[in-house]
Amino acid sequence: MSEELTRKARILDADRIGRMVDRMAHEIAERQKDLPGLALIGIRTRGVPLANRLAARLSNLVKQSFPVGTLDITLYRDDLSTVAPQPLLKKTEIDFDLNGRTVLLCDDVLYTGRTIRAALDGVIDLGRPRAIRLAVLIDRGHREFPIEANYVGKSVPTANREVIQVMFQETDGADEVWILERPA
Amino acid sequence: MTAASLRSKDLVGIEPLTPDEITLLLDTAESMRAIGERAIKKVPALRGRMVVNLFFEASTRTRFSFETAEKWLSADSLNFAAKGSSVEKGESLLDTARNLQAMSPDLIVIRHGSPGVPHFLARHLKAGVVNAGDGAHEHPTQALLDALTIRQKLGRVEGLNVTIAGDIAHSRVVRSNIWLLTKMGAKVTVCGPPTLLPVHIDRMGVRATTDFDAALDGADVVMMLRMQLERQGKSLFPSVREYFRHYGLDAKRLSRANPKAIVMHPGPMNRGVEIASDIADSDRSVILEQVSNGVAVRMAVLYLLLGGHPWEGES
């Protein structure tokens, strides 16, 4: 990113994020029909800590462990032809069979829906899950595809000029969510 | 983590690359490897891109490897073999290339018997150009797949003792490997009979010797080169048997190297000429891993040249 972003406001701190993840885990335990067959897949980079935390909380609630995988969607993006720089290609690590399972995709921010579109293709190439659900920490609106999340930490109305920055202890050394702003 | 990206639209050789670019190519190849282990060996990354494979020289391994890489990344590929083409009807190289350009390929993979042909095309064409071997000059994707194999087996390239033995004079593989290994901090020794060892090869930053036993002492990697009988034109050593006695790799010779040393060969091998059969088939040999890694490396090259401009961070 070449343009300068300015920090506008911190909208969530570690406490709030922790309680949000707790609540999402409760919702999943309550509403997800085939819990025993559930697997969580985090979309790189910051979907991964969310998937790990949801899996840990869920395990506590229902006394069962859940497989967790990591998905890199770089090769499935639809903007390779545009000038936009691509993220560094990393590994997809899913060492369990997806066939017949319910997959809970996890990501930090739901925005245009293009990342999720790519992730759906990526998952389907690895097997045939019974169902795919979506959990996101922040839904910031501005969808370009007909894609919605099943579990949402917080909906944050934003302007297009704004950017949501999710930070996790594991990836960024702190649990915080910020609204940043591009210069006008 | 490296944040570099490739600076050029072409990969004509290892010589112009920086260590950061080499690391980026190897890291990307590492991630590509997993695609070959899946049930569905295809990702849509290069959908709608056209790659022309322009092979003026015989090749099975390299051409199949590039074609596999193109298919796994969903690129469309066209194969051009010089035999039966307009080249035989007297068309010049530049005219052939211009005609191909008129069909708007995104990338041209070229192998040619004359050094510098890929560089010439890269200057004249809008499409990216990948060198798949130009005469005895460079074979960059071979050096990259060798480095990937070394990194996987031994964990690093820096600081390793790499011995490359055989027909040094006629080998493009050795030139690309010397550039790559010295850039990445390995210590390289080249070894061969005086008739196959270029006089000033040490100017490339390597140790040169005609004594194979001495060259093997403490080696972490032993890379054997094919005796390129078709390129030599005349007799440069007395007989195959005598060559094997002095420069062939067998179990006794290999015992001089580091006990964990790996044995590599770019293929095709001449068993009993440069390498004993039992060594080629032993657990020290990583020759078939090199072939599998070839596809991953070529996927990384295609992907990075055709639009994967990496950066670190989130959108």
Molecular structure report:
The complex is a heterodimer of chains A (184) and B (315). Chain A is an alpha/beta fold. Chain A has helices at residues 14-31, 47-62, 114-124, 169-172; strands spanning 6-12, 38-43, 68-71, 86-87, 102-110, 131-139, 151-155, 162-167, 176-181. Chain A contains four helices and nine strands. In chain A, the strands form two sheets. Chain A has a five-stranded parallel beta sheet. In chain A, helix 1 packs across helix 2 (47-62). Chain A is globular, with a radius of gyration of 16 Å. The mean pLDDT of chain A is 93. Chain B has 315 residues and is an alpha/beta fold. Chain B is 36% helix and 15% strand. Chain B folds into two domains: 19-138 and 292-305, Aspartate/ornithine carbamoyltransferase (Rossmann fold), CATH 3.40.50; 140-287, Rossmann fold (3-Layer(aba) Sandwich). The longest helix of chain B has 19 residues, at 287-305. In chain B, the strands form two sheets. A five-stranded parallel beta sheet of chain B has the order 7-6-5-8-9. A four-stranded parallel beta sheet of chain B has the order 2-1-3-4, sandwiched between helices. Chain B has twelve helices and ten strands. Chain A binds chain B through residues 1, 45-46, 72, 74-77, 80-81, 85-92, 121, 125-127, 165, and chain B through 1-3, 5, 24, 27-28, 30-32, 34-35, 38-40, 42-46, 48, 73, 300, 303, 306-315. Strand 4 of chain A pairs parallel with strand 10 of chain B, so a sheet runs across the interface.
Residue ranges of chain A: pLDDT <50 for 5 or more in a row? none
Strand content of chain A: 25-35%
For the secondary structure, the number of strands of chain B is 10
Biggest β-sheet description of chain A: 5 strands, parallel
Share of helical residues of chain B = 25-40%
Percent helix range of chain A? 25-40%
The structural domain count of chain B equals 2
Work out the number of β strands of chain A: 9
Going by CATH, what is the homologous superfamily of the largest domain in chain B?
Aspartate/ornithine carbamoyltransferase
Average pLDDT, all residues of chain A: 93
Major sheet summary line of chain B? 5 strands, parallel
- The strand line-up of the biggest sheet of chain A is 3-2-5-6-7
Q: Total number of helical segments of chain B?
A: 12
Rg of Cα set of chain B? 19 Å
Oligomeric state, counting identical vs distinct chains? heterodimer
Shape of chain B: globular
CATH architecture of the largest domain in chain B: 3-Layer(aba) Sandwich
Beta strand % of chain B: 5-15%
CATH class of the largest domain in chain B: Alpha Beta
Which two chains have the most extensive interface, and how many residues on each? A-B, 23 and 34 residues
